[in-house]
Each structure stands twice: as C-alpha cells, then as structure tokens.
C-alpha cells in the first residue's frame, strides 16, 4: 500500500512538472508571437490553466515532503501525549478541510460539464477540462492527509523536515 500511495504522489508531481513545462511553452509562444507580429489566441488562458493544474497536482507531493508552510510554535512547545494529540487534531482538521475542498472541486467540475460552462476568453474552452486537474489534485491531497493522519495515529509518521528551515538568513 505504501508503494502505491508514494507512486500516486510521485505521479501527480510528475504530471505537475509536465504541466509546468507546458506553461513555459505557452509563455514562450506568447513572447515569440509578439516579437514576430502574429497572434496565437488563447495562450494567456492556457498558461493560466496549466499553472493551476501544476499547482494543484503538486500539493500532495509537497505535503509528503514537508514543504508546506506549518506554524509549529505551539507544537514545539508541547511534549509527549499532548503533542501527539495536537498533531492528530491538526491532521484531522486538515483532512476535513481537504475533504470539503475535494468534494466541492469535483462538484464544480461536474456542474461545469453539466451546464456546458465555457471560458469567456477567445479560446472558449469548456471549463470542466481545466477544472479536472484541480479536482484531481484536491482528491490526491485528501488521500495524502488521510495517509498522514493514519500514520500519526499508528505512531509511524515521520515528519519530513524542510531544508528551508535549516537556513538562517
């Protein structure tokens, strides 16, 4: 099961990286088209869709690597059972919020498909297509939070320390 979950997080991160490369291509295409005096319609909209997809699909991978912003002032002051209880409470609340986020993201994509909602830009893209990446990223983030919560309850959770915390500026 651990291999499957890690594969899911890594696959989502790889897909996010692919979308980031797509974003680069869109930006470069926009720059080159301006310099050569021709217009490729929709590049700004597609760059936005790719940026959102990249961000949402990378959420779970970022969480599992300990790179999300955490305010640990209170947690670091606690010891023993009170610290474990606070970790469980924090992860339970985060899991609940991730569940709501996932449900409403999926609902948004579903409704956009049902209502044939399209973008207002010149590209007229059906909005459910870019919203799928947001919904998928939210669902994978929910799975990652459930994973973290279960590991914490079992006492097997290893908190990954961000390298950023080691730097002094």
3D architecture notes:
The protein has one domain (2-158). The longest helix has 35 residues, at 80-114. The protein has six helices and no strands. Helices cover 72% and strands 0% of the residues. α1 (2-35) runs antiparallel to α6 and α2 runs parallel beside α6 (128-154). The model has no long low-confidence stretch (mean pLDDT 90). It is mainly alpha-helical and 169 residues long.
Structural key phrases:
elongated; single chain; 6 helices; mainly alpha; 169 residues; 72% helix
What's this, in brief?
By secondary structure, the chain is mainly α.
Number of helices: 6
Largest sheet: none
**Helix-strand topology string:** HHHHHH
How widely separated are the two ends? 40 Å
Coarse structural class: mainly alpha
**Gyration radius, to the nearest Å?**
20 Å
Low-confidence segments, given as residue ranges, are none
User: How many domain units?
Assistant: 1
What share of the residues lie within helices? over 70%
What is the residue-mean pLDDT, rounded to a whole number? 90
Strand element count:
0
The coarse silhouette is elongated
What portion of the residues fall into strands of 2 or more residues?
under 5%
Topology:
Layout lengths: L1 H34 L7 H15 L1 H6 L8 H5 L2 H35 L13 H27 L15
Helix pairs in contact: 1-2, 1-6, 2-6, 5-6
